[in-house]
Amino acid sequence: MANNPIEGILDVGERSGAPLEQTGWRRYFSFSTDHKVIGVQYLVTSFIFFLIAGLLSMIMRGELITPPADLVDRPFYNGLFTLHGTMMIFLWIIPSLVGLANYLVPLMIGARDMAFPTLNAIAYWIIPFSGLLLLVSFLLPSGTAQAGWWSYPPISLQNPSGHLINGEFMWLLGVALLGISSIMGAVNFVTTIVCMRAPGMTYFRMPIFVWTVLSAQLLQLSCLPALTGAAILLFFDLTFGTTFFNPFEGGSPILYQHLFWFYSHPAVYVMVLPAFGIFSEIIPAFSRKPLFGYRSVAIASFGIAMVSIFVWVHHMFASGTPGWMRMLFMFTTALVAVPTGIKVFAWTATVWRGKLHLDTPMLFALGGVAMFVFAGITGVMMGMVPFDLHVNNTYFVVGHFHYVVFNTITMAIFAAIYFWFPKITGRMYVEGWGKLHFWLTFIGANLTFFPMHPLGLQGMVRRISSYNPQYADWNIVASLGAFLLGMATLPFIVNIVSCWNRGRKAPSNPWRATGLEWTTASPPPVENFEEIPVVTSPPYGYGKVMTNEP
Amino acid sequence: MKALNALLLAIFIAILMITSRWIGQQAYTWMPPQATAEAKHVDDLFSFLVSLGAFIFLSILGVLLYAILTSRAVKGDLSDGPAIEGNPTLEAVWTVAPILLVLWIATQSYMIYQQIDLQGLSPVVHLHLPLEAPAAAQTEDTAKLAVDTIDVTAKQWSWFFRYPGGSTSTELHLPVNQTTRLALRSQDVLHGFYVPEFRIKQDIIPNRTINFSLTPLKEGKYRLRDSQFSGTYFALMEADVYIESPSAFHQWLTQISAQHPLPAANPAFIEHTQPSPKTFSSGWVAVPPAKPPIVNHSSHP
Apex CA A386: angle with CA A385 and CA A391, to 5°? Predict the structure, then answer.
């Protein structure tokens, strides 16, 4: 089953008109169909959006450092958190992980490219276009969308300017396009992983990163159409006056919430699963031990994906949801802790009695795991209805999910960039700058997001630009932490930009890691492998004879 | 050696249990004061969750830290660790144990929810379908509720309360030690009813009436907050809440019923008409606040 049944596809048009392919830095600005070029395009583009969305959050923290609204006016503040959330999710985390997967999955399974290279390129080019749509809305007279990243009607349907082209219009267009791009990506990843594995690469010989990408992309396929559909219906309500979600004309705003969260909760797992995959690659390599319980970790990835489809109502416990529904989704939500727990235990057991090398990727991975444990615990707490009714829509929730999206997932993305930087660029980064980046980020992240938990417990609701002075102290800490976090990005940028140009040359396998991507040159040739490798054993053969060492 | 290891492990677990129990006790102090019967149940659940969470967090972090401190490779040591690929028994344990644990937690929460529910937390939602419900039946229903119910109306961006007898105010007054029913309605968008000291939150959905009840236990002044984002001046949508003795409550009701209804002072309305000159002005069009409610008694002079 694990042969390469459609090897023919790999050579489509012999790299579709290879003579036209650009070389050097210019290829990153071209409509390239090479999965490695597209992977880098995704990563760099999404990182730029990360910087912009981060800047928006600095303005918000600047506003919140004092209780009154004294920095920006209310519509602008509402626009800030709407675009911060939207961009961080749809233009940073999801596309940066898709970029990593784009670069790595074909290399990891021993393929020459993705199954549909042109579709891959189209899916990428939608991203900068949609991002620009969102950013351009800052220049509209009516401003950006201001209804938050979840864009609940009827708020999102109030269009005070009366203009046809308004912020919400641009937002819905952008989100619907990003949804279409992600669905294209999902079709491509699932096909690639199912059909294009090298000979001998059975499912239970795939690295965990590939397992997590497969689980995440299957989730995209099954759930994303709900959100894209909801966005289109909301667009009709806004622009053509239909009444799908208008409560005064027989529509249901609650229906929108169901459609929205039917995707947007699994979306959290679309984001966190590849992060788990990254931890599962890095921790064994720097512990010099096989991943503990590989099979159970692989199956747990599917377990997480399955359970996560049936938990969406926990975002709606306060939304007039009937008691039986609250109780049902409380139990399903609690169950997600089981497969995630399996992974955390497996990483801990992998570290145990290993020979640890605390290089930058490992620091980011361990820091991410530690903070994920915290996020997981507050997550289970919030799944419990009576407690959720107190903290729902407070800063406790904001603190919890930033421990997931920043302190876990963004840490994982940084870990991955450091880990695979030598492979992608053929050069080494500077370790000292990397460690500085880690410590500033780790401290800054905790200073920023921990104070949100006590604030939420005390009852400070989210999305307010002025607040009662009783909440001032923790807000000062959070704001200073956020500014530190902003500064923490500088050593990363210096390191990556300078080393990409002038770094020390990297060998093909600087970490002595297992995995097919390390058996080819750094950076890999256009065709990835001179000969398609034949796989004979499961991954993570640390401590055994390394069959694939260079 | 084996016995020593077991002893050390037992001491480690014992210390963890004592520490987590202590942290769980502290959890009560992280919450606002308890002003309703519901609050005590929620805080008990929170304390229980914090104890368990602290135990899990500290044990995993303890093991990770111990490994990081003791298992670092010596500089220049390029050898591999032992090729341990797994342990089926251990993996089975850490699959089954969490299943039992989360079922236990969820069952505890279920029981606490039932206790709160008896006191009337669970909302009863009436959907106003445009084609259903003849007008007469509707009025009768609302009239019946009005006898023992306080009508809560939310609109952008003000709260408005109608008391039995018909007096109106922008303040919420509740008699202590009595279960009060609230009928929550919104005139425009989603809002949320939230008083942190009450520990309960309920979204308010336009074109529906959500009946829900609570039992205040502690006299004092509290603050009601809109908890579901409701647009431009969302941050300003608050109201004062007073829990007072039944006699003080009825005295207040009689007092305000004599007052002539006037438009209430409204922070959102004020900020909309006189924006602060200090802030950066985007010039973006804001949704204008709805007309301030006309009430017998208003919080702000």
Answer: 85
How many domains does chain B contain in total?
2
Q: Any chain B CB within 8 A of the CB of A139? A: no
Q: How many CB atoms lie within 10 A of CB B275?
A: 13
Q: Are residues B162 and B260 in the same domain?
A: yes
pLDDT tens for residues A244-261? 999 999 899 999 999 999
Asked if residue A111 lies in contact with residue A196, where contact means CB atoms within 8 angstroms, the answer is yes
Residues in chain A with CB shorter than 8 Å from the CB of B234 are: 78, 463-464
**Which of B85, B196, B284 faces A143 most closely, judged by CB atoms?**
B284
CATH of the domain at B166: 2.60.40.420
Backbone angles phi, psi at A227, to 5 degrees: -70, -45
Taking the Cβ of residue A549 and every Cβ of chain B, the question of whether any pair is shorter than 8 Å is answered with: no
Q: Please check whether residues B253 and B139 belong to one and the same domain.
A: yes
Chain A with chain B: Cβ pairs closer than 8 A: 306
**Cβ contacts of residue A420 below 8 Å, gap of 6+?**
A100, A103, A104, A517
Contact list in B for residue A468 (CB cut-off 8 A) is 223
Q: Read off φ and ψ for residue A70, nearest 5 degrees.
A: -130, 10
Contact at CB, B56 and A71, closer than 8 angstroms: no
Same domain, yes or no: B141 and B233: yes
pLDDT at position B139, please? 43
**Arithmetic mean of pLDDT, B77-93:** 91
Select from A75, A540, A542 the Cβ nearest to the Cβ of B284.
Answer: A75
Would you say residue B208 lies in a domain? yes
B8: domain range? 2-67+97-118
Using a CB-CB distance cutoff of 8 angstroms, which residues of chain B are in contact with residue A348? 60, 63-64, 67
Regarding whether B248 and B191 lie in a shared domain, the answer is: yes
pLDDT tens sequence across A498-529 = 999 899 999 999 999 999 999 999 999 999 99
Mean pLDDT of B6-21: 94
- Å from A216 to nearest chain B CA? 22
Name residues 54-93 of chain A within 8 A of B (Cβ): 69-76, 78-79
Average pLDDT estimate for A372-394: 96
Query: What does the pLDDT look like over A442-471, one tens digit per residue?
Result: 999 999 999 999 999 999 999 999 999 999
Instruction: Select from B67, B112, B284 the Cβ nearest to the Cβ of A142.
Output: B284
- In terms of Cα–Cα distance, which of A316, A249, A226, A322 is closest to B228? A316
A469 touches chain B (CB under 8 A): no
Min mean pLDDT across A37-46, A100-109, B55-64, B279-288 is at: B279-288
Query: In the prediction, which pLDDT does A188 show?
Result: 97
Instruction: Answer whether residue B92 is part of any domain.
Output: no
| CB–CB contact A320 B190 (8 Å) | no
Find out whether A389 and A251 touch, Cβ atoms under 8 Å: no
B250: closest CA of chain A, how far (Å): 29
Domain count, chain A: 1
Note whether A34 and A526 are within 8 A (CB).
Answer: yes
B76 found inside a domain: no
- B149-155 and B180-186 strand pairing: parallel
Residue B23 lies in a domain: yes
Same domain flag for B110 and B136: no
Query: Is A400 an interface residue toward B (CB < 8 Å)?
Result: no
CA dist A100 and A105 (Å) reads 8
What is the pLDDT at residue B124? 66
pLDDT at B244: 94
Give the pLDDT confidence score for residue B128 in this predicted structure: 62
pTM: 0.93
> Tens digits of per-residue pLDDT, A368-382?
999 999 999 999 999
Distance from CA of A507 to the nearest CA of B (A): 16
Token couple for A124: 């990428």
**Pick from A413, A375, A414: which is nearest to A397 by CA?**
A375
| pLDDT band, very low/low/confident/very high, at A22 (cuts 50, 70, 90) | low
